[in-house]
Design goal:
The structure is a single chain. With 392 residues, this protein is of the alpha/beta class. It folds into 2 domains: 340 residues, TIM Barrel (Alpha-Beta Barrel), CATH 3.20.20; 44 residues. The chain has 14 helices and 12 strands. An 8-stranded parallel β-barrel has the order 1-2-3-5-8-9-10-12, surrounded by 9 helices. Strands 6-7 form a two-stranded antiparallel ribbon. Helix 1 runs parallel beside helix 12, helix 2 runs parallel beside helix 3 and helix 6 runs parallel beside helix 7. The longest helix is centred in the last third of the chain and has 34 residues. The chain is elongated.
Length: 392
């Protein structure tokens, strides 16, 4: 692979409506610390305002706190729902985070997933994709240092400029959400953005991967550019244990509530009446529930479908309890990451080289040991002879 594969997490998050929300947020911050220690590269944090389970309203606030607890992990807004925000405010907040994190922040934008969010703010869901493009276009100009004056049907900019220049030059990386429709690919190709393929792990999103990438690539070519595959990110559900049986048992903790939540927003996971939800999830490959080898196989399938890409993001579902969840991230870091990093190639080659030369190596070790024994015996005999000669 010519593009090194990065690994990260897409944190909406999803927390049971039965649990303490304060402790849930604290646990999310602890997860960021764990990911940092385990060598993950990125964490993308969502924005939601309704429906119950997705409890982070401001990814920027969360990122500011998480950045203080970590050293290496990069953070992205995954995503800021632009139709709900004035473009100048978004640009200034991202630039401030860029300074506070010393360049560890990325800006992800989207139209807003939950229709309930939009309706509470008096925004019709039908206009959100158009507003996403309008707001994104303005923010990119503000990032570049332009002075922007324009009026739309939902915001006004009057000789607007950002308060600070970005810490990252020319500005933080910008990504746009891409699911099934071509809207994300169109924006990525038009504006030279990265893509967050948030549904790559489910069939409809998987099927659309190469289609949306082609949409982006064709528009980029029309503008004299080429899409950068290192800025393409694929989100998949993952829960790993030592065995598939253990992984399946683990997710019985919270998988059914997760499915109920998604279907409460918009029926999309149609579990047949009387069918066990966990069994249905596993059989329909909604997520990788199994061993590290199963995850490696799924990522290889993404490569076969999409070609090379830059980062795989684990969808943080909280299907399992905290102990099993942290164990899953650890197993992924221990066995999936090094497979794609080829971190152990030299070690494996060294092991095999020793195996191939084992007879020669053993013979030389025995010869060296015998030589030392013979030398010691000769020196001991010489000393004994010298003592005997002296005593005569």
């Amino acid at each position: 692979m010519s593009i090194p594969l990065r690994h990260g997490v897409f944190l909406a998050p999803f927390h049971s409506v039965r649990e303490n929300p304060t402790l849930a947020l604290e646990r999310d911050l602890k997860l960021m610390q764990l990911l940092d220690e385990l060598g993950y590269h990125e964490a993308w944090i969502g924005e939601h305002h309704s429906a119950g389970m997705e409890t982070i309203d401001s990814p920027e606030l969360f990122i500011a706190a998480a950045a203080e607890r970590t050293k290496h992990l990069r953070f992205g807004t995954g995503v800021i729902s632009l139709p709900y925000h004035h473009p100048l405010n978004v640009a200034n907040r991202i630039i401030q985070l860029d300074h506070m994190t010393r360049g560890r922040v990325m800006f992800g934008a989207g139209p807003g997933l939950l229709a309930s969010d939009a309706l509470m703010m008096g925004v019709e869901p039908e206009v959100t994709r158009d507003r996403l493009e309008e707001g994104l276009d303005a923010i990119l100009r503000l990032f570049r240092g332009d002075v922007v004056t324009e009026t739309t049907d939902w915001y006004t900019l009057n000789e607007a400029r950002t308060h600070l220049r970005p810490y990252t030059r020319p500005h933080p990386e910008v990504c746009v959400a891409s699911a099934v429709t071509p809207s994300g690919g169109r924006l990525a190709g038009k504006y030279d953005l990265g893509m967050l393929c948030v549904s790559a792990g489910v069939q409809a999103g998987f099927d659309a991967l190469d289609v949306n990438w082609k949409v982006a690539s064709d528009l980029a070519a029309e503008n004299g550019r080429e899409m950068d595959r290192s800025r393409l990110r694929c989100v998949i559900g993952v829960h790993v244990a030592e065995t598939r049986e253990q992984a399946i048992a683990d997710i019985r903790f919270g998988a059914e509530e997760y499915v109920d939540y998604l279907n409460n927003n918009q029926p999309r996971l149609h579990v047949p009446p009387g069918k066990d939800t966990v069994d249905w999830l596993v059989e329909n490959r909604i997520a990788v529930v199994g061993t590290p080898e199963d995850v490696i196989e799924r990522i290889e399938q993404l490569y076969a479908k999409q070609g090379e890409f830059g980062c795989v993001l684990i969808l943080a579902t909280n299907w399992a309890d905290w102990a099993a969840t942290t164990r899953s991230y650890e197993l992924y870091a221990r066995y999936v990451m090094p497979h794609f990093d080829q971190a152990n190639v030299n070690r494996v080659d060294s092991y095999h080289w020793v195996s191939e030369h084992q007879t020669e190596i053993v013979d030389k070790r025995i010869a060296a040991a015998n030589q030392m024994i013979a030398r010691h015996e000769a020196e001991t005999a010489a000393k004994a002879e010298a003592r005997a000669t002296t005593s005569r």
